[in-house]
Design goal:
GO molecular function: hydrolase activity
Number of strands: 10
Keywords: Hydrolase
Strand content: 15-25%
Structural class: alpha/beta
Radius of gyration: 21 Å
Number of helices: 6
Number of domains: 2
CATH class of the largest domain: Alpha Beta
Organism: Methylobacterium aerolatum
Protein name: Metal-dependent hydrolase
CATH superfamily of the largest domain: Metalloproteases ("zincins"), catalytic domain
Shape: globular
Largest sheet: 4 strands, mixed
CATH architecture of the largest domain: 2-Layer Sandwich
Pfam family, one: YgjP-like
Distance between the termini: 24 Å
Helix content: 25-40%
Length: 223
Amino acid sequence: MLRLALRRRSAARRITLRVSSATGEAVITLPPRMSVGTAQKFAASHADWIATRLARVPERIAFAPGALVPIRGETHRLVRRGERSGPAQFEAAGGDLALSLSCGEEHFPRRVKEFLTKEARADILASVENYAPRLGKRPTRITLRDTTSRWGSCTTKGELNFSWRLILAPPVVLDYLVAHEMAHLREMNHSARFWAVAHDLCPHVDSAEAWLKRHGTGLHRFG
């Protein structure tokens, strides 16, 4: 049985169906007065399409001992050292890279995510410090979230938001996303002037954009 989320939007003029290629969530959006029965019939008539889209969603890989996870673009094996709580650390054994933690098994996924989020913040702050003097502007705030529709954003107040999952990508990708959002501090649009600023700040705009198009969706499979 297919499970779908039902949402109503006051601005919606027709029924729409979307399946997230990142998370596999299927969502039907309805105008305010459309009946649930109509939504059910619509979903049933598109069952094959939904199933096809869901089949393309990458298999989830949980943060569990033994899992292989990319960190800064390199594959690491997750290792649990023991029950007693201890700091996370990177290790190299027999040529393999690993991220090891010591904690109770039930806390392992949360501890991995917390550590990776901390590492992402450190890398993002380092890139901000690199670009701020050249741009002559600084963000008023930096927030990390687990977004599925965008990797970063910039508000009119100068607040920058990023996905913590950027720590899974190669460093040049994270660095580019920081440059991209920093460029919005000067140009709050995607005009030719914006892209001129972005290219002036960052030498790997094109290669990072290409990597995200090819591999970005796959970063959502972890955790």
